[in-house]
Amino acid sequence: MRRWNGWGDDKVDFHLSGSAQGMLEELIGSGTPREDVDLAGMLAKIPASRLPDHPLVDREPLTRLRHAVGQSFPDWVQIRYGDLRRFPDGVAFPNDDREVGVLLRYAAETEARVIPYGGGTSVVGHLTTPKGDQPVLMIATTRLNQLQKLDRRNYLATFGAGVNGPDLEAALRAEGFTLGHYPQSFEYSTLGGWVAARSSGQQSLGYGRIEDMFAGGRMYTPTGIFDMNTLPASAAGPDLRHMVLGSEGRMGVISEATVRIRRLPEAERFHAVFFPDWTLAEQAVREVSQAGVPLSMMRLSNAMETQTNLALAGKERLINGLKQYLELRRVNVADQGCMLIIGFTGARAIVKAGRRKALELCRRYRGVHMYRMLGEAWRKNRFRTPYARNELWRLGYGVDTLETCVHWDVVGEAMAGIEAALRNALNVENEAVHVFTHLSHFYSSGCSIYTTYLFRLPANGEAAMARWRRLKEAASEQIVKYRGTISHQHGVGEDHQPYLVHEKTPLGIDLIKQNCAFFDPKGMMNPGKLV
């Protein structure tokens, strides 16, 4: 069963190796193991529902609790420290499009606010129940999860918006196709959520982002049903799909989506390359990106992330052998060495040609090719990493991530600025912060910077939130300084909202508000998010 107060399946655990725990204790100190509020304690906090009875709405406390928060750090603090004060009044599970319309009318009649709920994986506060006297209805798209149409001739597939990543891929692979969208939340996040949050998968270099895949669909709004036709391309005015992409539930409930699919690749390989230092590694991935080498993904870890990942891997004898070999090749991963995971996907001939060219460019910058063992290990475990949050919290450590996208000319400076801001943000409390970063989602003009930071949890939720706010604000100010996007793939929600104006400008914010008001004139849809 899925955890009610953490990440993922409660039968799956991520155990930190002794070396990883030792590394954390050395860098930021020993954590104090926490005892969370139990399920009975949280259920006791839930007030009576303010919604009238409806056959599609579940008002039971446990259902409301399970849909009350996402996976952001503030969400975790509220539910684990027992500080959660606001809950949805009911959760609806429509079985088809028609029932989505029925539920929006019910919400209008009862003056309820509506929050669309996909997989519950938001890490930026998309699911927070708003304050106020109005009841709140979650519309969960869980049952809108079927493959409705497969167009083999035009390579299009239409799904209910609530289909999760594994089920979507299973349905397509049974017919010889794939979508190729693999965010880290792949196991639980949904197609509708990917569209609403403008998601990017780990292999976007080859498959594209969700805006490249989303061909059209349907959104139920308080104003009416918004159907988006699918076309290969169009110059007939603005592309209306882009009002839905990244709309974060502010305009309506996405009920179905048609996506552009591909034939299953003949071959897929993941390799590892190590570089002596960051400067050489960054130059290498930029040249590979700008050369247009046919790849599906790259992930370049800086020195600290490389060391952290190797410590997390356990298998100390194997890792020590790797380190010794790399030292002979003049790469010291205990010091400045950086690891690149690089993926090749497609026809065998393309995979072979792409591998040859990419590795040739890496060698120019003293890259040492370590073949497939580490690359395949990354592929195998790439959706298990979020489970580490559960174990770290148990040991007394908080962890969060943030990401941006900047131009190549400031990548190194921006990464250093973000890391320094995080590392120093808790100096006032004499608390250390462990920070590490990787580059991903590469473009000819720049790339995404994805940073993880760990810190010790204090005794109470208020103090934990104060620490997180200092960290988040310090890093976000650096992102703005280096003209980066406040979100490359996580969306805006509540957490990034104060910084959106720097990217969109005041006039742009007004335009977004006008779009929301057109579809939702009474402001009932996911209020307080995005803008």
From TrEMBL:
Domain FAD-binding PCMH-type: 84-264
Positions annotated as active site in the UniProt record: 450 (proton donor/acceptor)
Biological processes per GO annotation: lipid biosynthetic process
Pfam annotation, one family: FAD-oxidase_C
Annotated GO MF terms: alkylglycerone-phosphate synthase activity; FAD binding
Cofactor(s) this protein cannot do without: FAD
InterPro entries attached to this UniProt entry: Alkyl-DHAP_Synthase, FAD-bd_oxidored_4_C, FAD-bd_PCMH, FAD-bd_PCMH-like_sf, FAD-bd_PCMH_sub1, FAD-bd_PCMH_sub2, FAD-linked_Oxase-like_C, Oxid_FAD_bind_N
Keyword field: FAD, Flavoprotein
Binding locations of substrate: 389
Site label Important for enzyme activity, positions: 299
Amino acids binding FAD: 116-122, 248-254
Family: Belongs to the FAD-binding oxidoreductase/transferase type 4 family.
Name used for this protein in its record: FAD-binding oxidoreductase
Native organism: Acanthopleuribacter pedis
